[in-house]
Amino acid sequence: MKNIILLISFVFLTHSLIAQTNNDKPSSSLRIEMLFPQGKSKALIMSYDDGPIADKKLVKLMNDYGIKGTFHLNSNKLGTKDYVTREEVKSLYTGHEVSVHTANHPGLGDLSKIDITYQVVEDRRALEKLTGNTVRGMAYPFGNYNDFVVETINGLGIEYARTTNDSYDFSIPTDFLRWHPSIHQFAKAFYIPNDTANDKKELAIFYKLVGDFIKSDRLALLDVWGHSWENEGTGNKWGEMENFFKLVANRKDIHYTTQIDLVDYINAYKNLKFSVDKNLIKNISSMDVYIKIDGKVYKLASGAQLVL
Length: 308
Ligand SMILES: [Zn+2]
Known about the structure:
CATH topology of the largest domain: TIM Barrel
Oligomer: single chain
CATH class of the largest domain: Alpha Beta
Bound molecules: zinc ion
Strand content: 15-25%
């Protein structure tokens, strides 16, 4: 044990000496960037709403391809026509995230404070009972929200809320209660029935963004949202989903995650403790955090301190 401590001290001391002799710029000018877990530069999130029966097919496809999903459910709709049952929730979504979509799916922008609170807290409570897990995320029904809604849900144990305002980029959310996704599944293809020209145009937009994501060498989050029921009906939309999964699955540079896991990771990164000179960085969280300092990748294990 003593040898290990000495070895670690030596590595840090050596590093520190090199930094002092070779580094001609002050530590405070270091360029420090977040990386995703395992030092990956890309992350994929699939954010799906409503809990329809078609989720069973989507979850199976995700499991086959090793892709994780976040599923926003309306607890009062579970077990009604075309929705998964309450009994199915725990086993169906194992390995994925279950999140709030309100108890009854109203547009929250028209509701009073007490009604918004009921819709969110009641859904949280019911989903926590069904899953045996804390439920801390949300998607706004119909993408409907305003400043009053955000102010009301803040303090109800909701740590992020996804909108339907597509960003068409790979930005990391900075305001978690106004989390704008990258793009709807297949962009706006299949919105209009039997409009193949529009489908072609929108699919091109979708696959251009996916291609840019795969090619990107910068920190990039692709956050796709939709409803599994959109893949039912005419056309081979399940085949399209599988085409998309084939492009993005099983890639070493992509971290496959849920929304709440990413929130926890970003919070761990934000909570790194820096010394005044920025040469000491302590990770006080319960998860390993990966950072890039002036282009070099570092792993900060949970509880560890990095000495530069
Ligand atoms: Zn919905």
